[in-house]
Amino acid sequence: MAGPMMSDTRKGMAAMIGTCVIWGLSPLYYNLLRHVPPLEVLSHRTLWSLLFFASILLWQGRLGQLGQLLRTRRGFVLVAVAGLMISANWFLFILSIQIGRAVEASLGYYIFPLVAVLLGRAFFKEQLSGLKWVAVGLAFIAVATLTAGLGAAPWISLVLAFTFGFYGVIKKGISAGPVVSVSGEVLLLAPFAAVWLLGVHLGGWEGLVGRNLGVFGHNLHDSVMLAFSGVLTATPLILFSYASRRLPLSTIGVVQYLNPSLQFLCAVLVLGEVVTPWHMVAFPLIWVALAVFSGETLRQDRSARRRVIRAGTSSTTEM
After folding, report:
1. Chain-centroid distance, C-alpha 142
2. What's the rounded Cα separation, in Å, for the pair 272 and 279?
3. CB 147 within 8 A of CB 287
4. For the chain, domain boundaries
5. How far apart are the first and last CA of the chain?
6. What's residue 58's pLDDT?
7. Is there a contact between 103 and 272 (Cβ–Cβ < 8 Å)?
8. Labelling 3: which of 152, 200, 240, 268 has CA 20 to 30 A away?
């Protein structure tokens, strides 16, 4: 029994690490498309993700589940709002790379687990231990330090953290699996993406950045890169789904910090972004907060497992 179980755990860990490496190195990919307006990149990412996900569901014979999810009013509304949240998150991440704010983006994904804890408390009445409140407090001090030092709140970090946090809250209410639900999200976003790309290519629309490119079909390198963004989006989500069925949530939570750590290293070492003295104060505070949070989560997880084992042993003895 131990051998197959360990093998399954190792596969789950490999999938989780693969997920975080893809996410963590994605700034380098989108940096290669920084000359393409962000709404254009986002639209292609949406449409090619839909094609990739739909192909997977078709191959698995599960395309009908997508219709079942969107047939009810509740399912449609939840998927639509989740799609809005993840689309805003994707757009802001792409924009942050293009305007040289990848360090701030990485901070957002560091803050996200602590935001998720607060949202869990607010929406699901989840209890927080004293140490977890300490972690949240340290994160608040870090954000306040950056706000005071830079003269403005780190809006990119906060919006990325909260859009992803609310996305997680909404996903709790969707009964379908991750591939089906994300397929529904990009399906509902696809008409907007298609209209935008038609406007870009036929109408010269410029969008938020005041420039028009319409590179798809005119530049082979950019066309391939834009199309592959669908694979880059879908693959880590599928790996994450695989890992989540094989690893404890506490393990997944700790390994996930690999993602913003790689993003931070990419921003500083490859993209050449400057880390201010205020960042050098805020980031260590966030890292300490995450260490406290992770340690407490692992302790609670081990304690819960021990209680389950004791309860099982007690039941066996009584029988």
Report:
1. 21
2. 15
3. no
4. 2-126+155-280
5. 24
6. 92
7. no
8. 240
